[in-house]
Design goal:
The complex is a heterodimer of chains A (306) and B (226). Chain A is an alpha+beta fold and 306 residues long. Chain A folds into two domains: 182 residues, no CATH class; 93 residues, Alpha-Beta Plaits. Chain A is built from eleven helices and four strands. A four-stranded antiparallel beta sheet of chain A has the order 2-3-1-4. In chain A, helix 2 crosses helix 11 and helix 7 crosses helix 11. The longest helix of chain A is centred in the middle third of the chain and has 43 residues. The two termini of chain A are 27 Å apart. Chain B is α/β, with parallel strands linked by helices and 226 residues long. Chain B has a domain of 110 residues: Rossmann fold (3-Layer(aba) Sandwich), CATH 3.40.50.300. In chain B, 33% of the residues lie in helices and 27% in strands. The mean pLDDT of chain B is 91. The chains are: A alpha+beta (306), B alpha/beta (226). The interface between A and B is medium-sized, with 21 and 26 residues.
């Protein structure tokens, strides 16, 4: 206990007295933690944008106007039972007509011809899959369903039209996949790079103290007692760096919000940052402490052999 | 207390620094080790505190072969031996007070003992007004006094000093040697290396002479003869 107190006191004193060296450690740790924080926020933003785009992709099924409502209800239930399907939204023929009329209200000719016929629209089902890659399975199901109903004695199929832009969806899927892979690769590379720079800087700060370490050995200090203060210094630098990077992340989120204002589906990073402040802070704090400690322990090892 | 048994030390296949050196030092002795630069004086002291390993032979400190000690027991050995070096080897970021307190802390001594012993030992070496000075604020002689205070504060059985007056002027050298004599008078065994003829001749204590790694003389009340 008394030893721990001495180690902490000595570490903090050294940190304060070697402030120039400590600044170097804080600087690289801050850079690393800022990168980590920015990547966390960036991936959350990318994820929310991609989810937003994915949710826009759906299959629209227009049903024959003549079929009765129970059949529609059946199809809806069957679709909802599929694991690939997230939601099915039903629009009645009347609603379809209303939407159409509203959209074309400035076309008197069209309006007039509509007056003269019964509602030409069938009901519509908008199907949202759990994942865009599932749309092929859903379309196959719908085609089979249509064939079955025809074979079952009806004169016509249930489904009038399946509208699903396969090429667009496939392209979108590819883009989403690529952005996720690139995002992940860049994140991993950046983090590895920052860790390497941090480790080297801390190794240099300890290299400066190598004479001191050998003197401590020569006057009879054991390894844990020598190592302790350096670890305390590493932890202190990590804590300070995590606080600084939290401060730096706030203007960064403001900036991202201003440049991505028009991007569809992206969440508001500033409010996300504010509401998740404790979680992000704890992640950075723990990363900072681990990074500071591990770098110090690894760097000091080679000087403890005298 | 100290026994060298056919000790040789060869650094990286070069010329041997020590060749088949054997001698004994009894408790309470004051032994000077003399010789030209490169004769093997520092090597001999480094062997005692297990800073280096001998190529052949054994070095005993109170019946313990110091080089058979496991790495983690070496600090314990060093706490029983006070070391003084030519270049002082003080911790640059600690004050005179903290340099000495560090040695006591490392030995696990309690706070109240540190509060009493550190001022006491600093007063003893004549630094009662320099407690909170950093090494760079002290003169060479003052630094060496801090180093001696540090070596003594854990009340070691043996004090070894490697060229302790090598960087000091004659007056300071005289003062430092007086401190060593006092330490020896209260019962601490002292081993020091030097090539200062004046120092040795004035001491008239045991002198071991090394030449090119060989022990060439061992005189009870020796003089500097090379």
């Amino acid at each position: 206990m008394i030893k721990l107190k001495r180690v902490i006191k000595s570490g903090l004193t050294n940190f304060w007295r070697n402030s120039a060296v400590a600044m170097a450690s804080i600087l690289v740790l801050t850079t690393t933690l800022f990168v980590v924080g920015a990547l966390i926020l960036g991936s959350i933003f990318l994820e929310s944008t991609l989810t937003g785009i994915k949710d826009r992709v759906d299959i629209s099924v227009t049903l024959e106007p003549a079929i009765n409502l129970t059949l529609v209800e059946d199809l809806k239930l069957e679709l909802e039972a599929l694991p690939e399907v997230k939601t099915v939204i039903y629009t009645s023929p009347d609603e379809e007509l209303a939407t159409f009329k509203e959209r074309h209200s400035d076309n008197p000719l069209l309006m007039q011809s509509l007056e003269e016929v019964d509602n030409p629209f069938g009901a519509r089902l908008a199907i949202l899959a759990t994942d865009p890659s599932q749309y092929d399975a859903v379309t196959t199901f719908l085609n089979n369903y249509d064939q079955r109903s025809t074979a079952g004695g009806s004169n016509f199929g249930v489904i009038d039209q399946i509208s699903y832009k396969k090429d667009v969806v496939d392209k979108l899927l590819a883009i989403i996949d690529t952005s996720e892979t690139i995002g992940l690769t860049i994140s991993v590379l950046l983090i590895l790079l920052s860790i390497l720079v941090t480790f080297n800087t801390i190794a240099l700060t300890i290299y400066i103290s190598r004479e001191e370490i050998s003197v401590m050995r020569l006057v009879g200090a054991d390894n844990p007692y020598i190592r302790g203060p350096f670890i305390v210094e590493g932890i202190t630098a990590g804590v300070i760096a995590s606080v600084i990077s939290m401060f730096l992340l706030y203007p960064a989120t403001l900036w991202i919000r201003s440049v991505t204002a028009g991007v569809y589906g992206g969440i508001d990073l500033v409010s996300y940052y504010v509401s998740h402040f404790p979680v992000i802070f704890v992640i950075l704090l723990v990363s900072g402490i681990i990074l500071g400690t591990v770098s110090s322990v690894l760097a000091i090892g080679r000087y403890l052999k005298v | 207390m100290i026994k060298f048994d056919n000790v040789s030390k060869i650094y990286f296949d070069k010329l041997p620094a020590l060749r088949d050196v054997s001698f004994k030092i009894e408790p309470g002795e004051f032994v000077s080790i003399v010789g030209h630069s490169g004769a093997g004086k520092s090597t001999l002291l480094k062997l005692i505190i297990a800073e280096i390993m001998p190529t052949n032979g054994q070095v005993y400190f109170e019946d313990v072969d110091v080089h058979s000690l496991k790495h983690r027991y070496v600090p314990e050995l060093r706490r029983r031996i006070g070391s003084v070096f030519q270049d002082f080897k003080l911790l640059p970021n600690k004050t005179a007070y903290e340099n000495i307190a560090f040695t006591m802390e490392a030995a696990g001594r309690p706070e109240d003992e540190i509060d009493v012993d550190v001022p006491h030992i600093l007063d003893l070496v004549g630094l009662d007004d320099k407690y909170y000075h950093f090494p760079f604020e002290l003169s060479g002689g003052e630094r060496q006094r801090v180093a001696i205070a540090r070596a003594l504060v854990n009340q070691p059985d043996l004090l070894i000093a490697d060229e302790p007056t090598g960087n000091l002027d004659p007056l300071t050298t005289h003062e430092i040697m007086e401190i060593f004599k006092k330490i020896n008078e209260i019962g601490t065994t002292v081993i020091l290396t030097t090539h200062n003829k004046g120092v040795i001749d004035k001491l008239s204590k045991r002198v071991i002479t090394l030449d090119k790694g060989h022990l060439v003389r061992d005189d009870k009340e020796g003089r500097y003869v090379i």
